[in-house]
## 1
Amino acid sequence: MRHATKVAAVVAAAALGLAACGSSTDTAPGSGSGSTAGSTAGGGGAGLKVGMAYDVGGRGDQSFNDAAAAGLDKAKSELGVEGKEAAAVNGEAESARKERLQQLIDAGYTNVIAVGFAYAKSVGEAAKANPDVKFAIIDDASPDSAGSNVEQITFAEEQGSFLVGAAAALKTKTNRIGFVGGVQTDLIKKFEVGYEAGAKAVKPDIKIDVKYLTQPPDFSGFASVDKGKAAAEGMYQSGADIVYHAAGGSGGGVFTAAKAAGKLAIGVDSDQAKTAPADVRDVIMTSMVKKVDVGVFDFIKAVQDGSFKAGNKVFDLKAGGVDYSTTGGQVDDIKSKLDEYKQQIIDGSITVPSS
């Protein structure tokens, strides 16, 4: 593991704009992290220090990153851990992600969570260079990030997406729905494929429009409200009356387009009828809830308890890792049907495709 002096760590942290979340002024109510000094590398007990490196959009995206932040906030409140956060920026190089992880470590945050598959190579390299540090990466189970000190946290997004696809098919009045993906990657394809499978399970002849905002290595599709808005506007103008997005912060544009068109949208990751701006919440019919907060909290608690295990941990429908939301009551009339599909997926009578 690479070491640095306290002065170097502080300077480096400041240079990267890392936002401290464990101070007595920033800590969630009830947390004891502000009064506890230090921690052992990767160790458990009071004073555990956790660094979180966000994907593009960072805390405040009302979606994926915020779900991760909620898990850290819960750990601060309930477990008394101290946290420090840093966010990615559009178009940054791989070296920037790797350096962000190392600066968290050098600042003493020796339990590190990387939010998003874009960190895969950086986590793999940082884990090898820092064997005493425990890492978690969200949404990647590739060999790039694997290591004896890495937990790979993944979700069965296709299962949750099946449920909201079924909801869209049950609710559409035009027999045409849409899907907006942030970046065309294998991960986001899982959302699309599951959504299409759920919709076609209800209505085999339904029309589904699909649009991806960017292609790798351009990941700005997760933080481009204007692109999300334009994509959804095109779908509504073509006759779709419900559009599902898996586009991170760009989803705000989908909601704005739905509001202007008098149509409906489906949120992702968080229950966005609770997290989106108040003026668009009424157009969010449901959300595919991906419980990133559960995965984050589970990792932190395991480290603190001394029960950390490296490898891939999958949070599926059976494990409560994905679901659909009911906020606003717009799917209350079809809830029994959705729950039938949910149970069939859990018991294995429906196998949802993921690619």
## 2
Amino acid sequence: MTRVVFLLAPRLHLLDLAGPAQVFSAAADLGHTWEIGYVAEQEDVTTAQGIGLKAATRWPELAAGDLVVVPGWRSPSLPTGPVFTRETLERVVAHHTAGGTVASICSGADALGRAGLLDGRRCTTHHDLQDELARRYPRASVVPDVLFVQDGSVLTSAGIASGIDLALHLLAVRHGPYVAAQVARTMVVHTRRNGDEQQDSAMLRHRAHLSDAVHRVQDVIDARFTDPLLLTGLAAGAGVSERTLTRRFTEATGLTPLRYQQQLRLEHAEHLIGQGATVESAARAVGFQDARMLRRLRARPAAD
């Protein structure tokens, strides 16, 4: 029996907890030996979403093969004071010292930092907190804009839903990728993402504008990015001229419609390659006629 213990902080995010808990619960339903426990410093735990939770205040006996997970909590920035007492953090450190695995989700990385578990390690957190985490723990190496990072037996993930990716990764490590795929399918998770994938996609990064016409064109490109899309048809669908569309699109997103489509293709191709596809097959799957353009796009600097 492998035990996973979630250490709950006040005002924790439900999905930070529920997503990974569902992963391990689904694995247990499929016959794998996972036992889930919840501990906190107080029996009654408030959540950021207003639902109260009950947790044990006494830690169970942990073995080296067990896992401690610290979900994140609501805060626009990392807390100025400790969320957990020194005694609680020492329990987490003791588990790690004994050979156990420790993981965090979102702002839970701050607890690992206070415990000294991020010193000399690569780690990550939610993109809104990355810079602050790096300033607070200068001995850590904060990796920006990735879903999760594993450095030895310490794992850290980005915000909210990335906890599911982290938990699926742990299942794949413990039981193999087939079991992780089984659980993902049970949970109706579209795909199991790699840790080094970006926290937000091009579909989200370039939506912070107020142009309805540009949003309509983005909807078309998002849905049909593998197709050859002519500027003439995109402009007609938006009810503007080609020149006007190009100007508005560039003002709103910083990209031309073609460059936006290329970014979508590149992101999807990178995901396929991360899952084991060749560059040639990934290029064809996302709409390129051959792999030459994909190779050129992959070779460009990230800021290009």
## 3
Amino acid sequence: MLSTRHGVRVLGPTDLAAFLDLTGRDPVVNVFADYRARTTNLEPRWLGGEVWGRFRDGELVAACHLGANLVMVEATDEDARVFAERALTRRRSVSTIYGLQAPVRAFWDVVATGWGRPREARWCQPHLEIAGEPAVAPDPRVRRTTRDDLDVLFPACVAMHTEEVGVPPDQGGGADLYRTRVSQLISLGWSFARFEDDRVVFKAEVAYASPHAAQVQGVWVPPDLRGQGLAAAGMAAVVEQVRRDIAPVVSLYVNGYNTPARAAYARVGFRETATFATIMF
């Protein structure tokens, strides 16, 4: 049922076409929501949460994915505030809020006092895209990983996640769940790495993909090997393989303060198209 005040309701399978039209307004920025819709059909039991839609004159104009991740789609600041007011009627269940900086900030301004202090807020995360050939030579030793690689790859994934997020993904009994996620990405053909002497020297994964775009995450080089060009050449190889086999545009977002990573992506040919923000609990 529509909220009589704000025109907001929970979306379901009958809304899928309208929702995909909405994500299609910027299919690269909205790749997470597009992927989630296509893989769950907007069925709450598969979403593990809900997707809210805001309607104006019968047309879906904005949406909010509310699961482990809270991500808004084509939301203005006003839409974000409306979603936030609705979110305040329930206990916080999300672990991360992320997306375009402006609506994330507008949402947070409303829920901040009710949802508690976040563990960290990253307000400047350039969103990058590449839709052509990489500008540097791809590393020919970067390849798709296989299940045989899992025992070597998993510690590198844990190290990357701990360094990036600040919390080990395998703590508190989470090791099996995280290992399952790494295995899933391998099975999908979304995990890429270069190995030397049973050691990962570069790795990256596709986190989400649609017919329009793929979003890369987990880019990592061991600390003692950084500054040698492994990241740029490795990402060039990932871009080449992803554009060939998965989606025509490759995207990612990076912390604004991570100057070496931003320089590596620029060398590959990524261009900045937006600014994201992430709030972590």
## 4
Amino acid sequence: MSASLLSLKGVHTHIGAYHILHGVDLEVPQGQLTMLLGRNGAGKTTTLRTIMRLWQASQGQVLFNGQSMARLGTPDIAQLGIAYVPENMGIFADLTVRENLLLAARKARSVDELDTQRLEWLFGLFPALKKFWLYPAGKLSGGQKQMLAISRAMIEPRRLLLIDEPSKGLAPAIVRNLIEALNELKRSETTVLLVEQNFAVAKALGDRVAVMDDGRVVHAGAMAELAEDEGLQQKLLGLSLGAHQ
């Protein structure tokens, strides 16, 4: 297995009076796509938000490239080359597709300063972005908004992408397009930590997998091994991938 770009060691997170993460241990190998699976309420989104320090760990370590991020704020973490695509997508509905992407490109002050080659690469992954370039983002379909949210995270090269349930609520045809785009992203050797409830998506994309339950990682290994073991799927997730093809 590749060296870990991101490591969580014994991470606990409290939100108010609630103890959500109970000692999370997680390794995200560099250049691979790691799936973070688990039942609703297992702590997956809290894990992503804790990594970005949107919520602060009360105990444990979050290490990026071997260095602690404990003293960093969320903007500092973004400066390290880490991008976060939340479940609610976080796009600016009143701004155009172009304006949303420009805001995410920290090194560009105008559209003319955007990396043309990278922009064309994104258009190749998500052709709808080019079609609706001057369209208000709030008027896009759910699938198009998700494509925009992911593209904002990818408008500049990132070392690590954290993506929360990108296929949620999307039509099957759009999900297939999303899988193709994320596979292309994998070929660029970008490291990805992906929370997902669609197990067909997990099987198609994952190199590694970590399964959470009750605020802990209860299983970690190769995604292919979990995909082939219906008994383990039933034990960890309460259902089998085979039933969700």
